[in-house]
Amino acid sequence: MEQDHREGGVSYATQIPTGVPGLDRLLNGGLRRGALHVVLGGPGAGKSVLAHQVGAHLIRQGGRVLYLTALVETHQTLLSQARTFRFFDPAVVPNAFYYASLYPVLARDGLTGAREEIGRLVAHHDPTLVILDGVHALKITASSKLEYQRFMHEMEAQATVSGVTTLMLTHPEGSMSSDPTFTIADGILHLRADEVGMRTVRMMSVEKLRGVPHLGGWHTFAIRQEGMHIYPRLEALTLGMEAMAGGTETGDGSDPRVDFAIDGLGKMLGGGVPRGSATVVIGTPGSGKTLAGLAFLSAGVDAGEPGLFFGFHEGPESLCRKADGVGLSFRRGVESGVIRAYWRAPTEMLADEVAERLLAMVEEHGIRRVVIDAIEDIRHAVVPASREMPFLSALANLLRHRGVTTVMLLDLTRIAGINFDLPLPEFAAVMDNVLHLRFVEQKSELHRMVAVLKMRAGPHDHAMREFRISARGLQVGKPFDHRELVLTGLALPR
Questions:
Q1: Which of 294, 293, 253 is CA-nearest to residue 273?
Q2: Range name among 241-255, 335-349, 355-369, 409-423 with the lowest pLDDT average
Q3: Alpha-carbon gap, residue 289 to 396, rounded angstroms
Q4: What are φ and ψ of residue 440, in 5° steps?
Q5: Are the C-beta atoms of 140 and 107 separated by less than 8 Å?
Q6: 234 near 392, Cβ under 8 Å?
Q7: End-to-end CA gap in the chain
Q8: 279 strand-pairing partners
Q9: pLDDT tens, 436-461?
Q10: 250, 432 Cβ separation under 8 angstroms
Q11: For residues 171 and 134, what is the distance between their CA atoms, to the nearest angstrom?
Q12: How much is the pLDDT for 481?
């Protein structure tokens, strides 16, 4: 239930896991035992959900919770809200989860009376966790700033002496630097909701956790029937992995090669892409990007390498039919369990949630090959949009770190023209390999083309070759003539 962190010979305060998915990762273990924590957020931010979820987890570990409210909300209102979530068991009320209202004594005897009542209830119930809801209401009743500061010091002393972990829920108001609520607290969790287009995105920041190295900055979270789930910002999870940025661990061309089930492509790639590398396949619609991804996973079936198709456009059966049409063994891989095909609609997504799901599937199923279809869908889910490149780079590095060979598909919207613009050039720069598929017009006919624009490790074919798709399979053909215009989609007559 409790964790003791040591780093560089320094022993950090014992911590209590919260049971809230993602939160303990931000807190580097959990709440500090016997410490005072402030949960800050506006109405509807999720403060009481978080408090109830932490309390329910501690009760399952054998603890007791005392929920005190200085607001006019009744116990029945709080209970009815809590029981809508699956984590909460109403049967634990009132023995393990005890509700009490401070409002009557606060109205009668002010802040001094409320403090005495808190002490009496803590002594009587001997809780593991105290939740104090409506701290802003207590502040209003204080006769002076000094009285409120004394109240906060007494709350801190109670937590320290009794070893009771405390959560204080309050609204944001004024500056935190001069407010005793925040200066005295050992930890501050800040919740907020931002309007992004037509949707609301919830975020959390651990702005203070005294004595514990935690993940700072803002992180997205969601509230569903299962409760609150926090998705740590992906870039923050790559700390200490700087040596892997922009390449595989060896990067010297000596890595074993991983091939596609495409006749002739392996030869273009100098034997295949390096194992554990990240490849982006850039192509126009209909150029064969998805088939190339299916061919990559199909080659892993015979090699016995578990693969994952992580997509947002086509379900498993649609992918199987597409692979069947060109003779790939994708369906056999899915039916045998060697390949997992995951699909979700690309709407109302959180990029960090998508990445967490992807990485969890990689670890759960021992995945060695991953295809992501497509990068654009994940990009649109990154909040804020300025995080796009750091996020995608972090995703590639986390997959590399797990020894996964990754193929990411990226749409090129321009079918033909006199200019060739590389989409997301910053992203392509951090990829190990870049393949390009597109249509080429010759004598009023469209032909598919494949080119290797970049291979970080080892030599490769620099020719732009025809890419053939037929019922007999996928095949790389001869180089195009008059290559000077092929990348624009305009080729001169033979």
A1: 253
A2: 241-255
A3: 19
A4: -125, 135
A5: no
A6: no
A7: 74
A8: 407, 433
A9: 998 876 666 778 989 999 998 888 99
A10: no
A11: 8
A12: 65
